[in-house]
Specification:
Number of strands: 15
Strand content: 15-25%
Order of helices and strands: EEEEEHHHEEEHEEHHHHHEHEEEEH
Organism: Agromyces bracchium
Distance between the termini: 55 Å
Shape: elongated
Number of helices: 11
Pfam family, one: PDDEXK_4
Strand order of the largest sheet: 6-7-8-9-10
InterPro entries: PDDEXK_4
Protein name: PD-(D/E)XK nuclease superfamily protein
């Protein structure tokens, strides 16, 4: 009968670590590396990681595929008089894309000559424009100087079902040239558009428009923050960019599956062992948390306390801190000390360690002498010894800094 009691991490390179000696102790006390039982643990996984994409405001805010958000951003860049300082560049790119698709357009007897509409700063943008019969147009661009209107139905994922004839006739009541388009990441069927001989109808993909924006000219004259927003919008909306991401993701998956093929049957056993390890850690942590809290309260030096398991936090799982528990205690001077129970990836200790810092608001500003340092007590020591060693450090912190800069007032 064997029991998993320790998790260690072996450095592979200066910046990466791989689990190498999850240790098993057999009934006769012999310690054997678990990598012999779980060979996938000794594989090199450092290179199997998806590329870190730049921060994207649309994904970060939770609006990656919201059409209303997309329409607002489009409306901003299609308006030549907005503060992006790109003038008519974006609406011109849209017009050129419509012209290129006109061969497959429905309606309109004469080929569209976009050159007659390019370069104008007289375009006005109206979002969710209401028609006479109560319909709503996603984006309506109108130009009184050119007597032209562009109806844009923005479709990220939804089907095309809109009353384009109603949209077009509403615009035709005031403008001579009317272009009615569906703008989407991928081509949509023209059969879904209402046919009309008086207006041009087309489906345009975002990449058709993005490709016609002169990035070099934009970089020279555009507003810096607006250009950054435009790049994030393109990254978020471009079907081509999505395909590049999918290819990269596929390569990452294939590399991982190749590394695990064969020994993958051991994964279940490994995670069962990890559950047992965390069960042991959690039970001991709960006991120690109560004991330490009671002692600190009795001595009148405790302001607050908390405990967190690395396996239950995204930052813990991402960093491999899946076999460690943190017991935190804020002292009356504002200092915070934490007892770490388990194993921290990349550290040589296992069992108990401590970290301390001047304020709970900034847990990364750790004191040098208490930065993930081993505690002077081992797993096999009685709870009283572990509590005593930790409380002694707390009292030392109070003696060194009777009033910490991190102390909370009020």
């Amino acid at each position: 009968m064997s029991e998993v009691v320790d998790v260690r991490v072996r450095p592979q390179r200066a910046d990466t670590y791989a689990v190498s000696t999850l240790v098993v102790v057999s009934a006769d006390g012999v310690r054997d590396p678990l990598s012999a039982s779980f060979p996938f643990l000794s594989a090199e996984y450092a290179s199997i990681r998806a590329p870190r994409r730049p921060v994207n405001v649309f994904r970060l805010s939770g609006f990656p595929r919201w059409e209303t958000v997309s329409s607002r951003v489009l409306g901003y860049f299609l308006d030549p008089r907005e503060r992006h300082r790109l003038g008519s560049m974006c609406v011109d790119a849209l017009l050129r894309a419509i012209e290129a698709q006109h061969a497959s357009c429905l309606g309109g007897d004469e080929p569209l000559d976009a050159s007659t509409l390019l370069g104008s700063t007289g375009w006005t943008v109206d979002l969710e424009a209401g028609t006479a019969d109560g319909k709503r147009i996603d984006i309506l661009l109108t130009n009184d100087e050119l007597s032209a209107a562009i109806i844009v139905e923005n479709k990220l994922d939804a089907d095309v079902y809109n009353p384009f004839a109603s949209y077009a006739r509403y615009a035709m009541s005031s403008y001579r040239t009317v272009l009615s388009i569906v703008l989407a990441p991928t081509h949509r069927s023209l059969a879904a558009l209402d046919r009309g001989s008086e207006w041009v109808s087309a489906t345009i993909v975002y990449d058709d428009v993005f490709d016609r924006i002169d990035r070099f000219v934009a970089a020279e004259r555009g507003d810096e923050r607006s250009l950054d927003l435009l790049e994030q919008f393109i990254e978020n909306t471009s079907e081509r960019a999505q395909r590049v991401d999918a290819n990269t993701e596929a390569e990452t998956l294939e590399a991982f599956w190749s590394a695990t093929v064969g020994p993958d049957k051991h994964f279940g056993e490994f995670f069962e062992a990890l559950v047992r390890v965390n069960g042991i850690l959690s039970a001991r942590a709960q006991t120690l948390f109560t004991l330490i809290r009671d002692v600190l309260q009795e001595r009148g030096i405790l302001a607050d306390s908390w405990h967190v398991s690395g396996r239950d936090r995204s930052w813990g799982r991402a960093d491999g801190r899946v076999a460690i528990v943190y017991l935190g205690f804020e002292l009356t001077n504002g200092d915070c000390s934490e007892l770490m129970i388990g194993q921290y990836p990349g550290r040589s200790w296992s069992g108990f360690a401590i970290k301390a810092y001047p304020s709970r608001r900034d847990p990364h500003a750790m004191y040098g002498a208490y930065n993930h340092e081993p505690l002077a007590a081992s797993w096999r020591d009685p709870d009283a010894d572990v509590v005593g060693a930790f409380v002694a450090i707390c009292e030392r912190l109070l003696a060194e800094r009777p009033s910490s800069p991190g102390r909370l007032i009020g």
